[in-house]
Structures are given as C-alpha cells and as structure tokens.
Specification:
The protein is mostly beta strands and 126 residues long. The protein has one domain: RNA polymerase II/Efflux pump adaptor protein, barrel-sandwich hybrid domain (OB fold (Dihydrolipoamide Acetyltransferase, E2P), Beta Barrel), CATH 2.40.50. Helices cover 6% and strands 60% of the residues. It is built from 1 helix and 10 strands, in the order E-E-E-E-E-E-E-E-H-E-E. The strands form 2 sheets. Strands 3-2-1-4-10 form a 5-stranded antiparallel β-sheet, with no helix packed on it. A 5-stranded antiparallel β-sheet has the order 5-9-6-7-8. The longest helix is centred in the last third of the chain and has 7 residues. The chain starts with a strand and ends with a strand. It comes from Lebetimonas natsushimae. It holds the Pfam family TOBE. This is Transport-associated OB type 1 domain-containing protein.
Length: 126
C-alpha cells in the first residue's frame, strides 16, 4: 500500500459527498470521501499500487491527480511488473502489465507521471 503524508488545505461539500484537497510538496492531491468524521490538518493518503496509472507525458485526462516522479527500479514478473518510483521524498509502487512497460518503453531513471483517481485514495490520521 502506498502512503503519502499531506496537508489538508480545503474541503468542499455537497450533500454527503466531500472533496478534500491536500497539498504535498507543492502538488495538490484531491480525494473524494463520503464521510468526514475527523478534524485534521495533516493526513496520510493511501492507495493500492494497482490503482496507479503511469505515463511518460503529462496527459489531459479526467484523472485529477498527476504526480511527477522518477523510476527507481522495475521488477518484471511473468505477467506484471512492480515499478518503484520516487515522488519527492516518498517511494510509490505501481503495478502494471509487462506489455504496458514494453509499450511505454519504461526504464530506470525515466521521469514519469503517476495518475491516481480521487476516488481511489483513502485518508487516515495518526
């Protein structure tokens, strides 16, 4: 499970849906939640490695969260690859098909964009 520490900067609410906007090292990360039962300034944002898409170019998509990172290592299995990236001081794991690694020609030290849907991110507090 990936985890990023971030500062809560804004909450938007409509009915029972909340849009939480966090700031992490100059980037804004948006999270959609149904309930907020905590009062926080900082939180840990967590998401599964399989919920992260990767691109070599910044894309115009409906995915709000685009984090610029650098590939540290690639571990190829029979079907999937585990790609470890550095986003600021955090290590983020991405799991994608080997076909995608080959199609994108991903290599160690490549700069990439990690894309995570706002609904795929959870929030926890210490």
């Amino acid at each position: 499970m990936n985890k990023i520490k971030a500062e809560l900067v804004e909450i938007k609410n409509k009915d029972d849906v909340n849009l939480l906007i966090f700031k992490c090292k100059g980037n804004f990360i948006k999270v959609i939640t149904l309930e907020i039962n905590f009062d926080i300034d900082e939180a840990n944002l967590f998401f599964k490695p399989t919920m992260v898409s990767i691109s070599k170019e910044k894309c115009k998509t409906s995915i709000e969260n685009n984090l610029k990172a650098k590939i540290l290592s690639i571990e190829k299995g029979e079907i999937f690859s585990n790609i470890y990236c550095k986003y600021n001081d955090e290590e983020i794991e991405v799991i994608i098909l080997n076909e995608s690694v080959n199609k994108l020609n991903l290599n160690i030290n490549d700069e990439v964009y990690l894309m995570i849907k706002a609904s795929d991110i959870g929030v926890s507090v210490d």
